[in-house]
Specification:
The chain has about 210 residues and is an alpha+beta fold. The protein has seven helices and seven strands; from the N terminus they run H-E-E-E-H-E-H-H-E-H-E-E-H-H. The protein has a single domain, classed as L-fuculose-1-phosphate Aldolase. Helix 4 packs across helix 7.
């Protein structure tokens, strides 16, 4: 495999989304990881120990779906096992973003739900996020819990850790992360004010029918 040229366009896109993730303050210099399925057997994934705000395409690694590192000069993300477990579980998932947006991640440590029933956009794009019980980052335990929990959801809330979103494209997974963070802010605002007017069951069903 000619790693320096193979999948260059796709690797550029992954790097671009990681820089965007950092610019939007949805993750930190050392935090977060992004992957993209490019075939039934291969994924692209951001590595560990790189500056997320300045990532370039040559820093994006290639892995087999079985976990073989095909970019030997790069150290795979410690969360590569979690990405791979989800790809193996859900054939429809083609992109995954894992990050630590401050407000949404804060909710993973409170036991409170992020309400996606406050706006039509949040419900249409985020659906019902699923909480994943705590497991140490980068472990097989976390990977198996994430894969076991995902069901047909597109968003995982990793307890005391962060957020994972999935999509058919990178922009879809990114959009879900961004809208979820906004939903978390709205949830916090309504909790602080004590005033809330969520969408009713009939309106939520209308959204479900329209978008799902």
């Amino acid at each position: 495999m000619k790693e320096t040229v193979e999948y260059k366009d796709e690797r550029k896109e992954v790097a671009r989304f990681m820089r965007r993730l950092y610019r939007q303050r949805l993750t930190t210099t050392s935090g977060g990881n992004i992957s993209l399925r490019i075939s039934n057997d291969l994924i692209l994934i951001t590595p560990s120990a790189t500056d997320k705000g300045r990532m370039r395409w040559k820093e994006v690694g290639i892995m087999s779906i079985l976990g073989e590192n095909l970019s030997s000069e790069l150290k795979p993300s410690i969360e590569s096992g979690m990405h791979l477990a989800i790809y193996r579980k859900r054939k429809d998932v083609l992109a995954i973003i894992h990050a630590h947006p401050v407000i949404a991640s804060g909710f993973t440590a409170t036991g409170m739900d992020i309400r996606t029933d406050l706006t039509a956009e949040a419900r249409a794009i985020c659906g019902n996020p699923v909480m994943v019980p705590y497991a140490l980052m980068g472990t097989n335990d976390l990977a198996s819990r994430a894969a076991d929990s995902i069901g047909d959801s597109s968003i995982l809330l990793l307890e005391n850790h962060g957020i994972l979103t999935t999509g058919a494209t990178l922009i879809e997974a990114f959009d879900r992360l961004e809208v979820l963070e906004n939903a978390a802010i709205m949830t916090l605002m309504t909790e602080m004010t004590g005033k809330r007017k969520p969408l009713g069951k009939m309106r939520l069903r209308e959204i479900e029918r329209l978008f799902r």
